[in-house]
Amino acid sequence: MRPCTSRNFSTKEGGSVQQHRALQNTFLTPTNIPRCGIDQHQFCGFGGGSTCSRCKLRSPRQRCQTVLARLAAPEQAEVLRDEDEVVEDWETEWVNDETGASQEVEWFVEDWADNKESSGKESVSGKRLPAEMRCFDTANIYIKAGDGGKGCVAFRREKHVPRGGPSGGNGGNGGNVWAVVDDSLNSLAAFRKQLHYRATPGSLGGGSNRHGANGPDLEIRVPPGTIMRRRDARPGEPPLAELLSAGERAVLATGGRGGRGNASFKTGRNNAPTMAEFGEEGTEMWVELELKLVADVGIIGVPNAGKSTLLSVLSNAKPKVADYPFTTLVPNLGVCEMDYRTTVFADIPGLLEGAHAGVGLGHEFLRHCQRTRALVHVIDGTSPDPIGDYKALRTELELFNTSLLEKPQVVAYNKIDVPDSGDYIDEVREFLLGEGVPPEDIFAISAATGQGVRDLVRRVRDVLDTLPVEAAVRTTDALNMRELPRRMSSADISDFDVEGPDAQRRWTVSGEAIERFAAMTNWDYYEAMLRFQKVLDATGINKQLRAKGVQEGDTVVVGGIELQWSDDQSEGALYAAWREDKLRRGTAWQGTARWPHAVPRPLVASLVVALLMVTVALSSARRDAILPRTDAAQVELWYKQMKEDWDSLTPAQRAQIPDAEEAMDYVKELYNTIMV
Ligand SMILES: Nc1nc2c(ncn2[C@@H]2O[C@H](COP(=O)(O)OP(=O)(O)OP(=O)(O)O)[C@@H](O)[C@H]2O)c(=O)[nH]1
Ligand SMILES: [Mg+2]
């Protein structure tokens, strides 16, 4: 196989570099497109109206992404559709500020709310999460570990050190992405501001055996109780991490290995290798974060019962208190310090009848109750039907998750300072006793005046003391990878699949190790290509392709690299294909120091250098070291190609090159001598 004439690095999601480049000029870019070179874009911040710093796009971020997703790959659109961002006022025309071009777009996300509802993520039918709640306890972020640095091809050149040998250093490893618990955080709100997290890539290898520096790791700070899952996780796949205690950390994505420099490829048979590897790509993915609040005690109750007031009295927290339901939309945490002991209380927003089915954002709120060890059930003493409220809320807990009913609870009958409320207290107490609530767990308090609050907190502490010591309970079988894996991947290179051909006679070779190997092969070096061919032979890929009926000229795709099948597997044919590809791509300069025949045609002046280099190469006693694979057929091929280059020049161009005629004659003479 050899490089394809129309080489095209397909991306993982489909589409090509060219396609993405075209998009770069027009739209914001989804950053999960690998290696398209445009993932430097800054998306607009959350909230409509802001503009992207690179594209100067006027539309809201979500809209840009949506358009792009639509155009780039429909499957990405699926992913983007799930964004927690909500865009109002959809338009059907989009205008690029730079070019002024307008475009009709089909807003396929108009039915977004319906889709979310049917997927169970949306809690109020047809309505979207209030702004305060977005990203409070769920967030989606993009993470990318650093790519490995590129290996270097260099030779030691020093006075009195003849034939110094290869000295190209390895590239550095890319930085890893970690999640670290920061107990000063209590929500995922920070992820509204920053969506993309990229670790630094490894540095390039250098000459004189200098290895590139490893990219520093990136730490993403999350509140305790955060669960992180891959967005494209297979069903049943465990979450990446579930972190509970302060300082706990887990690896989310590992950085790519640095590419090896030519010093690493030195062997007894080839002591002057002219090839190096690209660095491995760092892992990238979208991660879903879910926060389940970790508090000792959850304060629950119907709206307006006085939960926030109670929290403000027993802790230093300053939650919003107002005389209307749903004042609290996101849980508030408060640390109560009493009798030299610390208890964390969470004020959960008000729960309504039907909360278990999502009414009044019930799902969002009830989820937080799960992570608490005990509950304080606040009854509104001024309610027309306090007993009814109590019963309804217990039913909701039961319907949502029966384990919530089993949580120890203390009941606080609130607002006893209001004259009327005292009328019902005895009735309510009687009812609660009938329900099996122990008398010591029933309190009449006034959160506003602080009456009875102390006793309530003491009782709560006693209840907590009776519970087994489990600061926080892990609810998933998360991987929680605390150390970096020794090897980047244990995939076997001979583990591959060959599929095809399709209508365009394209074959696809898939397999983790072979795909990585293809991505790390630096095709600018002829020896690297030879090595790749050897691996294709050794793993049996070539054999399997032949067995399945591959034909001359068929395209074979290995990990996004397109190659063309040729029945002629001789080195001469390989070399000719490699050279042709290099000239076409205009990357002939890389490695030309030792492959002079690869100098591009238009660079007339370089021909002289090329001729002289071949002269040196052929006549030098170090010939074997520099051109280890030289054989007669090879030399003949080179000479012919060089002659072809020379013949293609006009007399005027030839005249520009001083002494070129002599040099060409000299090479011809030398060639004749060697070939004889
Ligand atoms: N008189 C009196 N009023 C109280 C007491 N506790 C709370 N209130 C009042 O009740 C109203 C609601 O109080 P919040 O603490 O906001 O109630 P909440 O349960 O947090 O309400 P949501 O967050 O909307 O679910 C406010 O006007 C408080 O001043 C109390 O013990 N006595
Ligand atoms: Mg409140």
Number of helices: 20
Number of strands: 21
Compounds present?
guanosine-5'-triphosphate, magnesium ion
Number of domains: 4
Our Rg estimate from Cα atoms comes to 34 Å
Straight-line N-to-C gap: 32 Å
Overall shape: elongated
Mind telling me which CATH architecture of the largest domain this is? 2-Layer Sandwich
- What's the pLDDT, averaged over the residues? 73
Structural class: alpha/beta
Main beta sheet: 6 strands, mixed
Task: Please explain how this structure is put together.
By secondary structure, the chain is an alpha/beta fold. The chain is built from 20 helices and 21 strands. Strand 13 (332-338) and strand 14 form a beta hairpin. The strands form five sheets. It has a six-stranded mixed β-sheet with strand order 13-14-12-15-16-17, sandwiched between helices. A five-stranded mixed β-sheet has the order 1-21-20-19-18. The chain folds into four domains: 2-118, no CATH class; 129-293 and 478-488, GTP1/OBG domain (Spo0b-associated Gtp-binding Protein, Chain: A, Distorted Sandwich); 295-466, P-loop containing nucleotide triphosphate hydrolases (Rossmann fold, 3-Layer(aba) Sandwich); 497-675, GTP-binding protein OBG, C-terminal domain (GMP Synthetase, Chain A, domain 3, 2-Layer Sandwich), CATH 3.30.300. The chain is elongated. The structure holds guanosine-5'-triphosphate and magnesium ion (MG).
Set out the fold topology.
Blueprint: E1 2-3, H1 17-24, H2 61-72, H3 74-81, E2 93-95, E3 102-104, H4 112-118, E4 138-144, E5 177-181, H5 190-193, E6 196-198, E7 218-222, E8 226-230, E9 241-243, E10 249-253, E11 284-291, E12 295-301, H6 307-314, E13 332-338, E14 341-347, H7 362-370, E15 372-380, H8 386-400, H9 402-406, E16 409-414, H10 425-434, E17 442-444, H11 453-466, E18 497-499, E19 506-510, H12 512-520, H13 526-539, H14 541-547, E20 555-558, E21 561-564, H15 571-585, H16 604-619, H17 623-626, H18 632-648, H19 651-656, H20 660-675
Bound molecules: guanosine-5'-triphosphate and magnesium ion (MG).
The site of magnesium ion (MG) has 6 residues, from helix 6.
